[in-house]
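Appendix B, Record 12. Input sequence as logged:
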Amino acid sequence: MQFLQRCELLKIEDILPFFSDFVTIDHFKDAICSSLQEYNQHIQDLKDEIEDTTKSAEVLRKEIQDFRKK
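Logged structural output:
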């Protein structure tokens, strides 16, 4: 688990297949929760970016329509 904290390229889901079937989720609970929080934040960031892009597109459409009316 310490290795995962030091290496930004690896995620918990990358190493889970290498553990035996007898390992319980309790061993990885903190890492899984952390990973889920990171994904949740990334999803929220993408939603915010989509919202900003949509607003920009609406402004551009309105400017184009106003330009065509002139």
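The two ends are 64 Å apart (CA to CA).
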